């Protein structure tokens, strides 16, 4: 499991966008976005760099969750 902090999510549409972007990455089984915490939890064996790139390509900044 991978947990990342996503900066710039402000609404439900943002959460949906991040979810779709992450779930499109190969080997992602499920993406759970916590809008209030500004985090996404990724289940599966996806490459972290690919997940980060997908989120950045969707227009958001990514960093490691605390």
Automatic annotation (TrEMBL):
Presence of keyword Metal-binding: yes
Superkingdom field: Bacteria
UniProt source species: Skermanella cutis
Keyword check for Metal-binding: yes
Protein name: Heavy-metal-associated domain-containing protein
Residues covered by the HMA domain: 1-63
SUPFAM superfamilies (alphabetical): HMA, heavy metal-associated domain
Lineage of producing organism: Bacteria, Pseudomonadati, Pseudomonadota, Alphaproteobacteria, Rhodospirillales
One Pfam family hit: HMA
UniProt keyword annotations, A-Z: Metal-binding
């Amino acid at each position: 499991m991978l947990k990342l902090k996503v900066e710039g999510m402000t609404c439900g549409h943002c959460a949906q966008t991040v979810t779709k972007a992450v779930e499109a990455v190969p080997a992602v089984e499920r993406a759970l976005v916590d809008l209030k915490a500004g985090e996404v939890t990724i289940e599966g064996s996806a490459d972290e760099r690919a997940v980060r790139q997908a989120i950045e390509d969707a227009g958001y900044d990514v960093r490691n969750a605390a």
